[in-house]
Design brief:
The complex is a heterohexamer, with two copies of chain A (228 residues), two copies of chain B (196 residues), one copy of chain C (66 residues) and one copy of chain D (248 residues). Chain A is mainly α. Chain A contains nine helices and no strands. Chain A has one domain. Chain A starts with 5 loop residues before the first helix and ends with a helix. The model of chain B has no long low-confidence stretch (mean pLDDT 89). Chain B is α/β, with parallel strands linked by helices. Chain B has a six-stranded mixed beta sheet, sandwiched between helices. Helices cover 79% and strands 0% of the residues of chain D. Chain D is globular, with a radius of gyration of 21 Å. The chains are: A mainly alpha (228), B alpha/beta (196), C mainly alpha (66), D mainly alpha (248). Chains C and D meet through helix 2 of C and helix 2, helix 3, helix 4, helix 7 and helix 8 of D. The complex binds protoporphyrin IX containing FE (HEM), adenosine-5'-triphosphate (2 copies) and magnesium ion (MG) (2 copies). The site of one magnesium ion has 4 residues of chain B, from helix 1. Chains B, F: GO terms for molecular function: ATP binding; ATP hydrolysis activity; transmembrane transporter activity.
């Protein structure tokens, strides 16, 4: 049997997912444009007073990050479920735990990571104090990782259902809430001149836990979904 | 290579089959027969290990297997070559030349680099069937492999099955057509549970 | 007994509406969580009896289990 | 010990034993509910600050306490069902979710009604209230997931995974919401804290908490009985049972 | 030929879409729960202070309405495209204009309309002044109709693409923005004690225009997508 | 009922077919033949009016038509009965009894009220094929109607086709199998463009 070693296999999976996400060059721009537009909605909706916007910028940026994660989590496994790729993945000799991690990593690179990289730009758009920008980027980097992992659990549990779309939000939004609290807390602390380190440490701990546990839950969810 | 004892399955309040026992040996082709809705796909998924709840009986898998189901597992956004090179089945690691050869063998010469979603229905399925030329798994579980394939393609496929059986492989397939291979061919009738 | 009269009980110094509506809503929910499973059980048994009667001619597959 | 566990896994035994438990527990619970309510509504003195509106406490707090405990019952049942594949654990887990959701709903609604005379507002984003709202979401998520699966055996497995993930997360959610609230420190509204409660109010409260636990148990058993029958519809004993209960 | 009259046919289409959205009674709750959860994100992200929340409530409710519309617009035609139903719809003898209207109406009933109905509850939770609640509900009722119609155009144009998900947001978000401005403007006017009527009149005019024009654009978009 | 003159199509840089002229008359069955990827589906979609750009030639449709494509147009969440009663093709208005009869005719008696996504692959397609018993369109355009259907089902379908032809209808279909009907049967070879 010409079985691939697990790291090589996961590398190929990651590449596959990234290529699928970015088949056309124009698509790298789409998520970013999407963030920019959604963030632009807030001044329009809340009123453009610069000082209030700046105060609420951490919350706004975090809520948008969370929603965009919610949006893209739903699709992580869906097309693979529908075209039979997921069956093949379950039958693969490599442990599903690591394959699940590769899927989530790809999704994170295309959403959370990109957003974290570009968050300084959006922060400036909302008038956030420059002192808080490193905390913002760091909290997004750590926090969106947790979001993607938790979102993966929801996606795995609902992918086999005929109507998963709304359900996944119901399942995972409660689990997103602590991340939102600590994430926007970190930025608010930095804004207030305090250290963001404790918040980032908590986000880091949550990420470690999520990396360790979520793939197992995702794997269990996928097996259940394919069975249905 | 595969042994199953006393399998029974009930779905949607109907007993699909019961008391199915089955032994697939090297060099042997077993065709599962039954009307639409008889439970062929369900049985194949149990044998492959994809269904784990809701049936009774034992399955012992003694050899690595290749499962091709109703769905083609071909990504429309990837080209046929990419589809085979990065296949999620984990049993890859073929060189580019091997993949091109396999694609040529299923009649996709010249289509290696077009996005798969522009292929016709039969060509789409052929991308998946190319895995029969790449896999080294001795046991093949194929669910209606001839669907949407033209006559020439069916003959080529039968040749490939015969070749695999000749090399000591085994094939378990479902099909509504008769399969012509110069090898021992047994058929399992789901309605009666008899293997002939 | 803390209250002197029935109207005092109902009014509770102006807070009666709040207190009694809270208790009423709770009562409705309690009745629901006790009654719903009972109704589900009865409805199922009725269905099953109908099914048995319908299939009484044909031998229905019966699985004996501990 | 093992034979007990073995019996616990046996549907007809559980169906029978739950029937005999319910025969005395259910009337007792209903009686206690009436007695506790009368005690709380009529036979206690009003709170010196809140007046009579505080009488809502006798349903508000028990509902909240039992709703929270219910989640852990559900998660433990889920773990048992995943690890030991015990059919009855599946059934218990599935039964917990709607009851827990109903009790959480009661806690929120009664709290909201209580808040209007006390704080002058129906709703505040207080830490405890917010985390209870999240608990309602968690319960409803489990209910919705269960309903969404066609195959109920798989639905139970999926819900078990979800409730286990929830167990890991509930402490995190609680801590984070506490933190969030203390971070922002809104000055306008304050809980007094439970320490000042008078014994004459405490005893009926404790009585009602115990009663709500009994209520939870009753509803759980009733739900499990209905579920057992549905899952075992094709077995002989259920069919015989249906025959026995034939009216007329 | 046993061809159905257009109104009957559109009625059946509407019924089909609603049944697909709400197969089980429990599913009516899903969109409502979703709104509640997303709205709960805002206090968690922005902080629980009742006075700021009350000020932002119109904007928050309107942004949630807009995002939920964006989320569900993408799926209006997708499953019908994938399983071939859309081809059949195009071949139907009834005018596509009215069929498109039926699709959009079903989607609106399940998102915008439900949200408008429940908005008073959420408004109370966010501490919005009771005086502004009628203006909120009315503006949502009118405005989400425009959103659904415009979203339908985006969905029709992108449904045939292999990766439409993010593209649709880019296409339609710019068109959503005027609705957001007038919608939250109406509520803010009511909050400030002024009349919301001018804003509502503008939203009504936009709705009329959208009802008249959008179905034609949707029909054209669908023909192009099925052809591809 | 259908006339096409000098159709030609180029896709993905390849000339799929050219100079195809075709006249389908009442009581006639025309089978389009060609290997996988020859362009059968593309031609059928042009004839049905679903593809309107990118080809050259004229098509004149003189009668209402029923088109069944590769995709089944069956919604998994709806039951077979609902699928037929509320079909988006707009040509409905059948009574419940007619629908049940049609479902029985395609072998789905007893499955009228289960969600369609629980049906097997063949049963799923049969739901769509039930429209052949409900439609009153004289011209049928069928793209591989026999896919995933068992042998008994194929025979039943052939009987239905013969019946329709006998009533003065016309059928244009693609299939990789030979179709057995006691009626004039012509076949169009896409590669050469010859109608025999
Ligand atoms: C809409 C939501 C709620 C409102 C408006 C509300 C309101 C209140 C009020 C006014 C009191 C009396 C506080 C005092 O003595 O000054 C109270 C007490 C209490 N509430 Fe709630 N509540 C709500 C939800 C909850 C929830 C969800 C929980 C459970 C976690 C909860 C647990 C308690 C407990 C344990 C007490 C008694 C202890 C104490 O006096 O502090 N409440 N609530
Ligand atoms: N999820 C499900 N829930 C309930 N019943 C199901 C489910 N999946 C399949 N079935 C039932 O099981 C039966 C067998 O399905 P299966 O797909 O195994 O048939 P098959 O023999 O492969 O048929 P075909 O030849 O059409 O592919 C069908 O009648 C179907 O109704
Ligand atoms: N969107 C597209 N872009 C480019 N080429 C396409 C597209 N769609 C189809 N083609 C090409 O047109 C050719 C004919 O496809 P078509 O589906 O008509 O074949 P077919 O004769 O129906 O084959 P099959 O028997 O496999 O169903 C294929 O080779 C395919 O590559
Ligand atoms: Mg099958
Ligand atoms: Mg074709």
């Amino acid at each position: 049997m010409n079985t691939l070693s697990t790291p090589v296999f996961c590398g190929l999976l990651l590449r596959r997912q990234l290529v699928l996400g970015l088949r056309k060059p124009i698509e790298i721009g789409n998520p970013l444009l999407f963030f920019a537009m959604v963030i632009a909605l807030f001044p329009l909706g809340l009123g453009p007073a610069p000082d209030t916007l700046a105060v609420f910028a951490p919350g706004i940026l975090w809520i948008v990050a969370l929603l965009s994660n919610l949006l893209s989590s739903d699709g992580v496994f869906r097309s693979d479920f529908e075209d039979g790729s997921l069956e093949q993945l379950l039958l693969a000799p490599q442990p599903l735990y690591f394959s699940a991690l590769a899927y989530v990593l790809a999704q994170w690179l295309l959403t959370g990571f990109l957003l974290a990289l570009l968050s300084p730009l959006f922060a400036v758009m909302l008038g956030l104090d420059a002192a808080a920008i490193p905390a913002l980027a760091a909290s997004l980097l750590l926090g969106t990782g947790v979001l993607s992992l938790v979102g993966g659990i929801g996606a795995a549990l609902t992918v086999g259902l005929q109507r998963g779309g709304m359900l996944i939000s119901l399942l995972i939004l409660p689990f997103y809430m602590p991340v939102l609290i600590f994430g926007s807390g970190a930025v608010q602390a930095a804004l207030a001149g305090a250290s963001a380190a404790p918040y980032l440490a908590i986000l880091g701990a949550m990420l470690c836990m999520a990396v360790a546990l979520a793939p197992a839950a995702i794997a269990a969810g996928l097996r259940i979904s394919v069975d249905a | 290579m595969l042994e199953a004892d006393d399998l029974a399955l009930e779905r949607g309040g109907r007993q699909l089959f019961s008391a199915i026992s089955l032994r697939v040996n090297a060099g042997e082709l077993v065709q599962i027969e039954g009307a639409n809705g008889a439970g062929k796909t369900s049985l194949l998924r149990i044998l492959a290990g994809l269904s784990r709840y809701g049936f009774s009986g034992q399955v012992r898998r003694r050899a690595p297997q290749l499962f091709l189901g109703h769905h083609s597992a071909v990504k429309g956004l990837l080209t046929p070559r990419e589809n085979l090179a990065w296949h999620v089945s984990g049993e890859a690691g073929n060189s580019g030349a091997e993949i091109d050869q396999a694609l040529a063998a299923v009649g996709l010469y010249g289509y290696e680099d077009v996005p798969s979603h522009t292929l016709s229905a039969g060509q789409h399925r052929r991308v998946n069937l190319a895995r029969l030329y790449l896999s080294r798994a001795p046991l093949w579980l194929l669910d209606e492999p001839f669907t949407a394939i033209d006559r020439v393609g069916v003959t080529a496929l039968e040749t490939r099955l015969a070749e695999h059986l000749g090399e000591g492989g085994a094939v378990l397939l479902t099909s509504h057509q008769t399969v012509a291979v110069p090898h021992p061919l047994r058929s399992l009738d789901l309605a009666t549970g008899l293997l002939t | 007994m803390y209250f002197e009269s029935l109207s005092a009980v109902l009014q509770m110094d102006g807070h009666g509406g709040f207190v009694w509506s809270a208790y009423l809503i709770t009562l409705v929910v309690i009745v629901y969580i006790l009654y719903a499973p009972r109704r589900r059980e009865q409805r199922f048994l009725r269905q099953l009896r109908g099914q048995i009667r319908r299939n009484s001619g044909a031998a229905a597959p019966v699985r004996e289990e501990s | 010990m093992w034979s007990f566990f073995h019996k616990l896994g046996s549907p007809p035994w559980l169906y029978r034993i739950s029937g005999s438990i319910l025969r005395w527990l259910l009337p007792l619970t209903l009686l206690a509910l009436v007695a506790g309510s009368v005690w709380g509504l009529l036979f206690t003195a009003p709170d010196f600050r809140q007046g009579n509106s505080y009488r809502i406490i006798y349903i508000h707090v028990p509902a909240a306490v039992v709703a929270l405990a219910g989640y852990y019952v559900m998660a433990i049942a889920g773990a048992v069902s995943l690890i030991w594949r015990m059919k009855m654990a599946d059934i218990a887990m599935r039964a917990c979710a709607p009851i827990g959701a109903a009790l959480t709903f009661v806690a929120l609604v009664t709290g909201s009604i209580w808040g209007k005379p006390t704080w002058g507002t129906w709703w505040v984003w207080d830490a405890r209230i917010t985390s209870m709202l999240i608990l309602l979401f968690l319960y409803l998520g489990v209910v919705a997931l269960y309903e969404a699966y066609e195959n109920k055996a798989l639905a139970a497995k999926a819900c078990a995974v979800l409730s286990l993930v929830g167990t890991v997360n509930i402490p995190i959610i609680y801590k984070s919401v506490d933190w969030w609230y203390s971070l922002h420190q809104p000055a306008s509204i304050k809980f007094t804290g439970g320490s000042t409660i008078d014994p004459s109010m405490l005893y009926p409260l404790l009585f009602m908490i115990v009663t709500f636990y009994a209520l939870f148990t009753c509803s759980l058993l009733l739900n499990m009985r209905a579920e057992i029958l549905q899952r075992e519809a094709r077995t002989g004993w259920v069919r015989r049972l249906a025959g026995e209960r034939e009216p007329g």
